Amino acid sequence: MSKKVRLQTLEEVTIRFAGDSGDGMQLSGGRFTQTAAVVGNDLSTLPDFPAEIRAPAGSLAGVSSFQIHFSSKEIHTPGEKPDVLVAMNPAALKVHLKELTPGGILILNKNAFTVKNLKLAGYESDPTEDASLDDDYAVHYIEMSKLVTNVCEGLDLPPKIVERTKNLCALGVLFWMYDRPLEPTIEWLNKKFKSKPEIIDANTKALHAGYNYGETAEITTRYIVEKATLPPGKYRNINGTLAACLGILTASQNSKLGVTFAGYPITPASNLLHTLSNWKSFGIKTFQAEDEIASIGIALGASFGGSLGITASSGPGISLKTEFMGLAVITELPLVVINVQRGGPSTGLPTKTEQSDLLQALYGRNGDAPLPVIAPRTPGDCYFATYEACRIAVKYMTPVVVLADGYLVNGSEPWLIPNPDDLNEFIVNFEKENNSDEKFLPYQRDDKTLSRPWAIPGTKGLEHRIGGIETEHITGNVAYTPDNHQKMTNIRHQKVQNITNEINPTSVYGKKKGDLLILSWGSPHGACRAAIDELLNEKYQVGHVSVQWVNPLPSDLKDILGQYKKVLIPEINAGQFIKIIRAEFLVDAIGLNEVKGKPLNASTIVEKVKELI
Amino acid sequence: MSDNNSVFKKADFQSDQAIRWCPGCGDYAILSQTQKVFPEITTKKEDVVFISGIGCSSRFPYYMDTFGFHTIHGRAPAIASGLKISNPELSVWIVTGDGDGLSIGGNHLIHLMRRNIDLNVMLFNNRIYGLTKGQYSPTSEQGKVTGSTPMGSLDYPFIPSKLVLGAQAGFVAKTIDIELKHLREMIRRANDYNGTSFIEIYQNCNIFNDHAFSNLTDKETKSDQLLRIEHGKPMIFGANDNKGIYIDDTTPKVVEIGKDYSIDDILVHNEKDEFIADMLSNFTSNDVFPEPIGVLYCKERATYDSLMEGQIEEAKKKNKSKKTINDLLNAGDTWEVK
Questions:
Q1: Which of A18, A167, B278, B314 sits between 20 and 30 A of B187, alpha carbons compared?
Q2: With an 8 Å Cβ cutoff, are A298 and B79 in contact?
Q3: Are B271 and B300 in contact (CB under 8 A)?
Q4: Domain A236-422: which CATH class?
Q5: How many Cβ atoms from other residues are within 10 Å of residue B260's Cβ?
Q6: How far is A496 from chain B (nearest CA, A)?
Q7: CATH, domain range A6-224
Q8: Which residues are registered as beta bridge partners of A7?
């Protein structure tokens, strides 16, 4: 069979895979992502899954999706409205169709549009039968279940297992449509199902079936998305969880310091515990504790013992840890607390992203209890942020909070693989000898950093006691005196401020002065960067600053803010960083606040900027 | 080890901090006996760490001239666990009370028991909240009249030994603040035990709950109400060692030795037998039976910290290709941009 195929080159494409939780959409998305990476596109992804592990099959609540934005130019966000929607069942169509770009491509598994599934999705009539979709979209009605059943005929596999390969069939169709190689996926299947040759066979057949469908059926356009021109070097695709864990491992290797990571199962932070638990050969100790409180206590106890204690959690789990953070502040021990922020308050939106724990990180403890807070801006930046958090925790003898979020840990991007030797030097100095002629002085400080000595049990002559009661300057003895409390409060504050010496000069993207500065922290970085690119193209006099350290703030930030007529702060919360900026710098900043459980859209930011200028 | 061979003296374990417990408090005796016994059980003072939560008993670490950490209410087990797994060489001691360990920290305590990290717990049980001025605690008897329960407390108390046995503790002992020699012996036994050891110490709070244990300490009553148990020895008590525990079919009962029963009929304590341990824990606050002190249960099994070290060694052995951080950084599909 021969047909005329039109080739069209596109700069960027956004595809959303959507289906039932059991349809394997995260896997299809993941494989498409890996292939786009191998092809050399710049890319950004956004997985989105329901809070329920197995919501009833076919129901609206059970729809899971994965979006990938890939491009031949540099991109910063997982895209907004998809150009292509793969809907594996009526529920997925119902949930996601409204976001598909008008005129976009819609790929449907026709076999899933059964009376039962239509009813579950709330359709009164079958939209695949009345041609109503064809008015607005380029629809491909593909009998995927039937296709895979046919190609797998003769394999010794139950029909249910064969049916499950339809996600590979959908992937095959897209691979044909966007001219992608099948080999990386086939290699991956061979590795993943090493001991199950029939499964490899079935999935490979399904992948080819989809690809061949594209080649032989009435799809007449193929799209080319060329490789992107990224800075030279060796790349891989990385998500924020892996990046954060590699940051921890690099910190351990560069410092020769043991790591004890204690956690408690919670979405979406658990994957950090899983990943690190596989790295025992590097000496990393992981511990699943009985609760959130115990996990931070175990981490702090490990730090007292001379290992770097780290814990991670989300949402309510972080609330439970706050008392221990206060103890870490007053005892001045190193500790890293990774908060993978999710929608709140309370249980909130466990699987959705948000940035609403900033004020909690800064102030959510009893007493004046300052601690440094660092916020990664992209999935790959989680590596550098956790590394720095570990380094600063030790150098300044302080707990450090890493404010990541659900989008960062689950999202992915191409990553220029760093060389661990290029990172800031990570030196550990355990106290070896008594620093006094009499009793050891545990709160005798370093003049420059104000940090106290790390004197670990097992070191002869350094026996001393620490605790949560206010401590006497220098001696570390219990002290309730008024002047001492004033002094210690001031020192704890100044110690955190001293960390500004560790922060690189702030870089401004776009115009160095002008009408408006977009100031962001954390994950809106990408959307802000995309918005600025668009605005600069249109000759707007705008710039973007994306801070990584939220506390302390960079010392040059005040001057930068003064270079613009207006400052806009986009955040996925009801307005938190804006309060800090207003309070610290007396700048009448304007907020852009949206809390829908999703990353901010660049277009929303562009719109807001145009409204303000 | 005898005192003569010790590297340290009692004074070496006394810190320079002024002790702030109320005069007459049972804590003084416990502190003093601990300071006295430590020269016998350690030659490396720098390896000893006392960890406490919040409460009267939790001031303990400040008075020991060792490493110490006065943490937060109920959470000493968490800090102690992290400390021990970070450095398994240390000798880690948790000091807690009935409020700290069984109320706010109850969850940590039970998990500590089943986890079996090689550390020691000294729970000072005075059946009252002292530092907050006398509210009833989880070990107070029902009907306890206190500031927060003017008409008497409504809840039933925990029996600590029974609780920790239920939580899979491998070493459970009981003693009393004024039983000085016995107290030192229990600390020694706990130190010798490889795993989590739990010592419940009845401690008199002379301000808010005086005489809570006087039936076990007063001359007139203690011989009939206190049962000193020892491994391999019959469970006898009474003014003339004339009473004993006899198993009648399946249930224990108190019998008189000499008439219908001889010493050979009396149950011999086996500290490795969990059924005997369970039975003894039921003797607490029981009108029919005497209250046991001594080692109720002692059976070793692999510790969490040693198993953890074992997994790390195994993982290192399996990693034959000597994977490095750079291998992990460069894992998966990579590509070059020129």
A1: B278
A2: yes
A3: no
A4: alpha beta
A5: 9
A6: 22
A7: 3.40.920.10
A8: A222
Q: What is the CATH number of domain A509-612?
A: 3.40.50.920
- Whether the predicted pLDDT of A50 surpasses 90: no
Give the model's pLDDT for residue B335: 84
Q: What are the structure tokens assigned to A367, written together?
A: 């007493």
Chain B residues lying within 8 Å of A290, measured CB to CB: 107-108, 111
Select from A524, A570, A100 the least CA-distant residue to A353: A524
Contacts of A292 in chain B (CB under 8 A): none
Q: Min CA distance, A58 vs chain B (Å)? A: 34
From its phi and psi, is residue A458 left (phi > 0), alpha (psi between -120 and 50) or beta? left
Give CA–CA dist A254/A160, Å, rounded.
49
* Interface touch A294/B81, C-beta < 8 Å: yes
ipTM of this complex > 0.85? yes
Contacts of A471 in chain B (CB under 8 A): none
Answer whether A300 sits within 8 Å of B319, measured CB to CB. no
Q: Determine whether the interchain pair B332/A417 forms a contact, defined as Cβ–Cβ distance below 8 Å.
A: no
B203 phi and psi angles, rounded to 5 deg: -130, 125
Q: CB B311 to CB A280 under 8 A?
A: yes
Chain B residue closest in CA terms to A442: B67
Whole-model pTM over 0.95: no
Domain range summary for chain A, segments of one domain joined by +:
6-224, 236-422, 429-485, 509-612
Amino acid at A457: P
Q: What is the pLDDT along chain B (338 residues), one digit of tens a residue?
A: 445 568 999 999 999 999 999 999 999 999 999 999 999 999 999 999 999 999 999 999 999 999 999 999 999 999 999 999 999 999 999 999 999 999 999 999 999 999 999 999 999 999 999 999 999 999 999 999 999 999 999 999 999 999 999 999 999 999 999 999 999 999 999 999 999 999 999 999 999 999 999 999 999 999 999 999 999 999 999 999 999 999 999 999 999 999 899 999 999 999 999 999 999 999 998 999 999 999 999 999 999 999 999 999 999 999 877 889 999 999 987 888 87
Taking CB atoms and an 8 Å limit, are A282 and B325 in contact across chains? Answer: yes
CA A244, CA B278: separation in Å to the nearest integer? 47
| Option in A294, A458, A466 nearest B108 (CB) | A294
Taking contacts as CB-CB distances below 8 angstroms, the residues of chain A near B314 are 280
Give the angle A165-A171-A174 at the CA atoms, nearest 5°.
155
Residue A260: list chain B partners with CB under 8 A. 82, 85-86
The helix/strand/coil state of A542 is strand
A356: DSSP letter: T
- Tell whether omega for the bond before A345 is within 30 degrees of 0, i.e. cis: yes
Look at B333 and A246 and tell me if their CB atoms are within 8 Å.
Answer: no
Task: Say which of A279, A297, A459 has its CB closest to residue B46.
Answer: A459
Q: Is B337 helix (H, G, I), strand (E, B) or coil?
A: strand
| B111 contact residues in A (CB cutoff 8 A) | 289-290, 294
For residues B79 and B67, what is the distance between their CA atoms, to the nearest angstrom?
13
Please state, in angstroms and as integers, the Cα–Cα distance from residue A166 to each residue in A145, A162, A345, following that order. 6, 8, 38
CA distance A226 to chain B (A): 13
Radius of gyration of chain A (CA): 27
What kind of architecture, by CATH, is found in domain B3-212?
Answer: 3-Layer(aba) Sandwich (3.40)
Tokens (6 digits) for A9: 């080159």
Residues of chain B neighbouring A283 (CB-CB closer than 8 A): 312, 316
Pick from B46, B111, B337: CB nearest A40: B337
Query: How far away is chain B from the Cα of A90, in angstroms, using its nearest Cα?
Result: 34
Q: How far is B337 from chain A (nearest CA, A)?
A: 5
